Amino acid sequence: MKISYLDVKIFFLKVISREKSFEDARAWAFTLIKKNDFGELELDEKEDMDAIFSAITFLITLDTINGKEGYLYTIDDVRDEYQEIFHEPAP
Question: pTM for the whole thing?
Fold first, then answer.
């Protein structure tokens, strides 16, 4: 499976726009981590690996529940993380 910086950025934007759910984000990130663990994830070495793995690490935690209050993170948290990782304002 091949993944790029742009793929991760686009997925992040789909979560922000609510095209993808927090559960979708966790499932996608989990798949990427498993593929990486088995040596089945292809990354371009010229890409920003830190950004890619920071994004994946954040996305895998998105569906974490905070007791009775719901999700631990909000869409605003996702926007903040997007800005931190991709160094540009989130929509």
Answer: 0.90
